[in-house]
Input
Amino acid sequence: MDPSFMSAPASEIRQSVPRRRFAATGRVRSGCLTCKTRKKKCDERYTPDGSCCQTCARLSLVCERVPLRKVVPKRPSDEPPSRSPSLSLSPSSSDSGGDDQANEVSSPSNTRINPNGFITLFSLENASPERILLKYYIERLASLCSILQEGSNEFRNVLLPMAIDDTSLLYALFAYASVHLHTTAPAPQISPLTKLKFQTEAARGLSEAIRLNNVSQSTIACALICSTAEVVSGDTTRWFIHLQGAGHLLNQQGGPEQLRRTSDGLFLLRNFAYHDILAALSTGGRPRISGVYWVEDGPISADCLMGVAHELLGHISEICFFIADANDSEVSTDIFPEGLLTRGETLAQKLKTQTLNLRTTLTSTELGILLHHAEAFRYAGLLHLYRFLRRFSGATYGHRIAECVEGIIAHVSQVPLSFHCEVGLVFPLFMAGIADVDEGTKAYIRTRLDNIYSWTRFEHITRIKELLEALWAAGRTDWENLLRDLGWKISMA
Output
């Protein structure tokens, strides 16, 4: 070994060892595109005119370079309107260039909105079908679903928050609004295909929740809204299938005991019970659940569907069970009517003497109107029971039916025209109409039904009126047989 090397200072040794250079920025983003395509490092030593690097010149290659870009200042017109809420928007991506190509600033014209969720509907600048239908439901349709002139409306306060987390319920509300909007003020944006799309998405969401065993309260609400949408469209079969499905989902969710734990669950129970009892009455079946399972203990508040007639509907439910049991009995009711008459009289007495245990903050005027609504329901339930018992004692129950008709008309006449509570009088008016009434009573019933339809545009009222007109024209009162002949199932809700 060279002694001079051994005697050299350490600083000189360190300086003589070549250092390895490391790239501080990782991947090199400069140079021509030709060298980058060849995966070679560009020497970046360009010819005097700047058109070609020395590597491309030596290999006789066309030296391509990234063209220079100009930064365009953002115009005020590109800014989103201040009235729209700020949302997280994902710009549309582009794969047109290399790694060195900068991303351009997105403007509302080239921004893609993620259509997942509820609040994005309000960010649309143009009137989309979803925005039209949501606005229509909030401002118009939800109020038509309630018989309360004042107070809270659960069709807004309960269903809309649920729809934030459940898109199937949101689509069901869109379908409901599109059905009703078509009868009131058809919009060109809401085509039959659009309505079908919303109905399909709601049905798909229901099926998926059932398949994944992921049934929730919003799933039950979705089924109920699907049923109601079919009712107001004038359908005579599908609404009942959706209602039965809602009953299955309710049991799958844990039944009334589970839903009673929350205020939203209680509303769903009231909604289902109201439609289920009236459906059992019109179809001759039994309600899915017996008892007054939808109320809390103590005084009862006014409901947007039942008003103050909670306990009265409970007795009507019991009457439906009684009639269905009698019709299914193996023992001939013509031979042994005494037991049926006794039980029927007991049910009639319970319905006639039922008091209304109220807890309400409504004005005295609206409370008085709701009491007339409840009394009309009381007489309608009695009339339904007396019509069945008349099979065994026509002389006894003929005059009682006439008294019920008088009671219904008397209380209905106390409800002002076009008052919200009027929409809840369809059932009492129908029950009065199927009795043997005079022409004056028929004209009054026809007028009130026409008025209800004029401001609600609920098509099931048209079906009810068609049924009454057919009965009156034929001089018949056996409306159950006529429904079977027509193959109809109608809702009196």
In short: The chain has one domain: 129-329+336-486. Residues 129-329+336-486 form one domain.
